[in-house]
Amino acid sequence: MKKGDHLFLIDGSGFIFRAFHALPPLTRKSDGLPIGAVSGFCNMLWKLLTDARDTSVGVTPTHFAVIFDYSSKTFRKEIYDAYKANRSAPPEELVPQFGLIRQATRAFNLPCIETEGFEADDIIATYARQAEAVGADVTIVSSDKDLMQLVTPMVHMYDSMKDKQIGVPDVIEKWGVSPEKMIDLQALVGDSVDNVPGIPGIGPKTAAQLLEEFGDLESLLARAGEIKQVKRRENIQAFAEQARLSRQLVELRTDVPLELDLGALLLEPQDGPKLIGFLKAMEFGTLMRRVAAACDCDANAIEPVTIEVEWGAEARGPDLDAASSADTGEAAADAPANPAKAVVAKSTDGATPAELADTRIASFANAKIDTTSYVTIRDIEVLDDWIKAARETGLVGFDTETNSLDPMQAELVGFSLAIADNTGNPSGLEVRAAYVPLTHKTGVGDLLGGGLAENQLSPRQALDRLKPLLEDPSVLKVAQNLKFDYLVMKRHGITVKSYDDTMLMSYVLDAGKTTHGMDTLSERWLNHKPIAFKDVAGSGKSGVTFDFVDIDRAATYAAEDADVTLRLWMVLKPQLAAMGLTRIYERLERPLVEVLARMEERGISIDRQILSRLSGELAQKAAAFEDEIYELAGEKFTIGSPKQLGDILFGKMGLPGGSKTKTGQWSTSAQVLEDLAAEGAALPRKIVDWRQLTKLKSTYTDALPGYVHPETKRVHTSYSLASTTTGRLSSSEPNLQNIPVRTAEGRKIRTAFIASPGHKLLSADYSQIELRVLAHVADIPQLRQAFADGIDIHAMTASEMFGVPVEGMPSDIRRRAKAINFGIIYGISAFGLANQLSIERSEAGDYIKKYFERFPGIRDYMDSTKAFAREHGYVETIFGRRAHYPEIKSSNPSMRAFNERAAINAPIQGSAADIIRRAMVKMEKVLGDAGLGERVRMLLQVHDELIFEVEDADVEKAMPIIVSTMEQAAMPAISMKVPLKVDARAAANWDEAH
């Protein structure tokens, strides 16, 4: 190498990371070998080589090398054993790809360099300084801040994702110091990713100011006494040696023993047949054709080479050695997680998930969506071309259009596809979308609403083509609220496999911050307002179902949905990794889509005669209440009218505590009536009782028969995964989670939910799960011991508080303890407890005070949780799910107090919700492994309860399996400090089974 030459140094480990996280999962079709990272690596390397050899861009390398980490065991471990100690094992599907990527580098005819005991950064530093010494220019292809200490007028960095050169001015602009001071800056700041300690309380801006004032690290440490800020001065003095240690860790070595000298890095032309043989073996058809064209080779005449796949300990990759041999399978994927405390994983090139996420956010926020470019597919050959392109890309946005929001009865009107050219443009910014109309109607013709519009594909023909794509696990399908599309496709004989759901991604990232509908997400992340449904289908009386929308207008609307969804995936996916929330999405959200879809598809039987009889009974009871209400009021009025009721209560009767709404009417909310009833007013109590009866009648006994499916003759509720802040599921159409279980009427409604002939309904219900979670989270010794010993927790609490023996305890004393136990979880006030127990507020306040005195750990938990929420804006479940409370710092005292109560409850309720989610995800496999399969079918989830339909002969076998799966659901991620307990019964109807 000589003056005027130009050396390109590629951080191979960084390319591995970017390829793995930038592209969807991909497997080799012939044998299922994971190859997504290899595919991305090869495409990125080919693009870099192609661009680098283009003399029009001004930078042409003469020498070229790809540098890898040998392993995580380097000389820095000898200096500081905790260095990179928090790094997690690489994903299981990435492990075999490390060796394949090294083979790919050699297939490109490029030097593949690694040195045992050193990191890739050290090798890069050594080559860079050697090249600089002979007068050559150097470009380091990376954005890693650790390499910025190498930047000089002759050594530049290049961020290939942002297409940006990084020189001396860029380092100064970003960090506030020149490259030669980056070592001292990093020594002060530390690095949580690499576990470099630094000095507590010193961030990049402060470090830059200190180095500007004192010159370098040693001068700063020697003159620390001159620092005016007391806390800062004390920290620097106390952690001086830690800063010196950190400097040793971050300073790159420039004396690595190298097997290849600079001259051996001369960039040779690609060996076309060699590279094509490798690409053909990996089944990378698109890139193979590009290489063949560039190298003027006949790909058909070249045989695939033999590929050696390294698994387990044989495979070398970033931090692979940190994983023990036991960290495989579910145990590794389900390791204990606390994202607030966990170190965010990054590749050894410093290209962190956060950097990728930031790049994607900025890129897609500025990328314009051209709805005029969408295609309407009316020809089967054109559809075949789109499906082929989706297969080659390995990624497709997908959406269905129907004539109903009920997936169990909706008619499929059409579907849309979106494809990003990830192989040619890893940013994914180039998205093309199309709509396939199937059953649009003209609106004129026969009495059924018009004949089919012309020039549409046959639904059967189109779905026959679509089925292999949607069922191909090597192609990732991306949808918004996939469960709907999953059910629609399932009814057409198609089971969607390998998918991501952008709604659930958003939910994991931002539960409590925002809603997760596509329109909201599009405006937030893409700066694009999608076409509203009403703009194409109309609204109100003039509105039509989608099958009557003109195809051209429908195509733009539908294709846009798929386009926007795919772009959202590009933006949201890396954020999961950046925020340490990938595990939550992949273990608690995505797997539940199929589980819930199957539950909804199964439905549950109801007895219409029971409901009809109950409707009559409720009507009679409501009429009796109405007579009593009229007598108490002294006149007849419309009880359901808030205005008339308010005038009676506060106008005519002059009851205290009345307040008016913004409309000027008296407030007659449930809370107002409950407060009045607690003060002894008879009429409000009767109104509350009447409202409960009439709601049960209208919502359940009258309405449930209308939900019976005309074909299955069963009721199919719909579950929402992303509608609560804490992770609890909700159900609708009909809502089966609000049937009261503590009232006689509610229990009677449950008797109408029945098992099919020859079956039983089996109810498995967690016992006091939220109190058990509280005992675990707050680490309360008395509660933990009571649960471990199987003692009545409410009697134990009463005994602790009131000094009453458990044996022979009066029921009212236990009832008070129970009210406090459950009330504390929800942040109950003295006022609320007083109302619940019908006691004075001062007495209730004394109870709460005494409770905290007996169980101080609960108060500590509440205080620490509120403090954490105020600092971070969110709280976490024991599994790491985040619930956000952005208004917890509100200047409005009521709003602030509400958010504080919610934040205290969320880790408890959310952890319980996560536990039952885990049980549901595991359940069907466990039952299948036990040979029970479809003979035991999970039908419903209602808060802490799962309901199954079981063949009579399998009840005894199924019950212990279900109970064990639920009780062990937290394992292996979390080892609960208290045992979980599940009560299970089987009977002919839901009430008897509960």
From TrEMBL:
EC number: 2.7.7.7
Species the sequence originates in: Aliirhizobium smilacinae
Domain of life: Bacteria
SMART domains the record matches: 35EXOc, 53EXOc, EXOIII, HhH2, POLAc
Known function: In addition to polymerase activity, this DNA polymerase exhibits 3'-5' and 5'-3' exonuclease activity.
Residue span, 3'-5' exonuclease domain: 374-577
Any single Pfam family the record assigns to this protein: DNA_pol_A_exo1
NCBIfam families: pola, PRK05755.1
Enzyme class: transferase
GO BP terms: DNA-templated DNA replication; double-strand break repair
Protein's gene: polA
Protein name, as recorded: DNA polymerase I
Keywords: DNA damage, DNA repair, DNA replication, DNA-binding, DNA-directed DNA polymerase, Exonuclease, Hydrolase, Nuclease, Nucleotidyltransferase, Transferase
Compositionally biased spans, kind Low complexity: 322-346
Annotated PANTHER family: DNA POLYMERASE I, DNA POLYMERASE NU
Region (Disordered): 318-346
PROSITE patterns for this protein: DNA_POLYMERASE_A (PS00447)
Catalytic reactions on record: DNA(n) + a 2'-deoxyribonucleoside 5'-triphosphate = DNA(n+1) + diphosphate
